Amino acid sequence: MNxxxxxxxxxxxxxxxxxxxxxxxxxxxxxxxxxxxxVRENYKKQIQFIQVIGDSPILQSARKELESGLxxxxxxxxxxxxxxxxxxxxxxxxxxxxxxxxxxSELRSEGYVIFNKNNKIVVAGFDExxxxxxxxxxxxxxxxxxxxxxxxILENPKVQIRVLNHWDNLDxxxxxxxxxxxxxxxxxxxxxxxPRYTDxxxxxxxxxxxxxxxTNVNANAxxxxxxxxxxxxxxxxxxxPYGIKIYLTARFSxxxxxxxLKTADPLDPIVQRWxxxxxxxxxxxxPNFGGFLVKANSEGQPGPQDYGRSHAExxxxxxxxxxxxxxxxxxxxxxxxxxxPADRFKQAFMEFKPLDGQFDDNVLIQVKNGxxxxxxxxxxxPLFGAMPQTPVIMEFQITKEYLxxxxxxxxxxxMYEEVLRTDTYAKGPGSTVAKIVDGSLFNHKKTGMAGVxxxxxxxxxxxxxxxxxxxxxxxxxxxxxxxxxxxxFKEWTQLTFPVSEKAQQTIVDMLxxxxxxxxxxxxxxxxxxxxxxxxxxxxxxxxxxxxxxxxTSVYYHKADSLGLGFDRTTTGSDALGQYASAFCxxxxxxxxxxxxxxxxxxxxxxxxxxxxxxxxxxxxCRDYYKGIAQVALMKKQWQSLESEIDPExxxxxxxxxxIQEKEAIWWRDACVTYFQQFSKMAIPADLEQPLxxxxxxxxxxxxxxxxxxxxx
Length: 712
Ligand code: GCV
Prior knowledge:
The protein has helices at 3-21, 37-46, 57-74, 101-106, 128-143, 195-206, 226-239, 254-257, 269-285, 311-322, 344-352, 413-421, 433-437, 467-479, 485-496, 501-522, 554-557, 581-587, 598-601, 616-639, 647-679, 694-699, and strands at 49-52, 86-91, 112-117, 120-125, 152-155, 161-165, 211-213, 245-249, 291-294, 328-332, 363-368, 392-397, 448-452, 563-564, 604-605. By secondary structure, the chain is an alpha/beta fold. The protein has three domains: 25-155, Chitobiase/beta-hexosaminidase domain 2-like (Chitobiase, domain 2, 2-Layer Sandwich), CATH 3.30.379.10; 161-367 and 383-392 and 418-453 and 472-496, Glycosidases (TIM Barrel); 520-566 and 603-699, Alpha-glucuronidase, C-terminal domain (Alpha-d-glucuronidase, C-terminal Domain), CATH 3.90.1330.10. Helix 10 links the parallel strand 9 (291-294) and strand 10. Helix 16 (501-522) packs antiparallel against helix 20 and helix 20 (616-639) runs antiparallel to helix 21 (647-679). The N and C termini lie far apart (57 Å). The structure holds 4-O-methyl-alpha-D-glucopyranuronic acid. Residues 167, 175-176, 217-218, 295, 299, 334, 373, 401 line the site of 4-O-methyl-alpha-D-glucopyranuronic acid.
């Protein structure tokens, strides 16, 4: 081969490698060689061997991860040898004098300590899972170039069940999924095990996620057929060495659809026996099966109310089938009915609050963070704090159904943090949502946090590269709901973009400001549910014709010649009355209600002066325009990083930011133009005027929006 040809071939393979290396597949587990020679050499001195005590599948995962992480970071292969300095990891009980009793006594299930002792870095878990999590923590520290010479870390998870909810259908479409198809290849399972399953499990374990509900809550009974269960068992086998349990969604009518019974009445002994037999079969295939997630009597799903039974009777029947094996039922409180005339905001509370105390011990009630449905900003659901005798677990959405879907950069950690830090006053001041979720407020042992996954077959898993930050943030907050969003953004950025500190700070700033930007250009001042119908992509404040009133936008914004917003005080629906009185007090008065929630609770006159002296209308306009300025700034910030970020990831984010800016302007112009017909007030003269009239925006038709069948 002549030199030129050789050079060309080499260049081709190098560029191929470069592309592959930076397509985002590796998420935050990149393990690239540490560029800073000082840090690298220091680590090399400190770590010359890796010893993992024990050989169980979970400990083998820990060993493999340490070996591949260190080989990547340091550029050399390290394994067990007789060097003096190195890492010793294992279950504390098996480590003898290396772990003192006082350290052991602080450990709880799945927890770990990391410390230095006799030239060694010791990672000691309460159990095998704790050891695995500790090893991931150590690798995270190395990815952040931390000093490893003075380690004194104690971590116990604050929440017990930390679970992803995949809204994945058996035909591999994903409800509200914006990153391709479902990663579960039901056709080829159980014989073909996609290596992606292992990487999925690794990624989850690295942030402490210990469960995956692999099927959609709009459930299909077919998943309980023997062949599907064998497929699920194959997934469970891949997840188990990473400490992850598999869960399935249970369609309440399965005994009819699959079992050929005439009824699914939870009080019918034949139905009960059907579920007991099914549970036995599942556990014979998946001994560590986690349990069921159930959406019942909600949006057309079957449930116990079809037989005149309560949610408690339905949940307990399933819970009793799982109890002998240690399984749990996560029963969703996302229920509302068009037969109930009450404000949809109030319905979940009305349904579930009276059932407090009626659920079996292995039932957890899963509540969405807000009372409506994953809006860009919602007040917390009044159910948090209202069911002291029941474990109430959090459901966050990681996929961005209402937050720009697959094309907008919105760092959700800020939103999660806002929710978790909200004081419900359920037991006086300091009764934060985090304290309800971690069980400490009402002394619950069973605790949980669920996140609706944003994962799909896209090479980078989440479609938008920054969607990875939301997956990461969910895991970290499920482990510790008290973590600060800014720390999570920093961690994720350091691990995902090993660029200069200044560049990392720029990325962190983008993430920090992005949620507020989205709220501003979509739903400022507490507007909510004004998206286009069905697919929820783009603005649709004019939506007024739907099968149910509470699926329309006009139901929520209530714009008229007098003003804007939903009166939920005593003169309106009185939804505020569902909260503790100290909580209510802050919101009940238009003068004192925080502006970001104003239109959630009040119908406010257009010309009313808000605390800043400007009218509601002017505030609304200025917030919409501010959102655009914030997106423009994010674009500028990202552009400033071009020389530091690999071209593939840079371009991908850049193109998405360009779409985001265009769509933010669309949102602004459509909404301002729509609301102006009621306010009859001018858009402040110093602001750019909308490009088109209202008719133009109303007529826009986009059959390519994710989640709908293209039609004219
Ligand atoms: C899985 C909203 C979404 C639905 C989703 C539902 C739920 O209504 O638009 O796609 O269904 O919430 O959480 O059950």
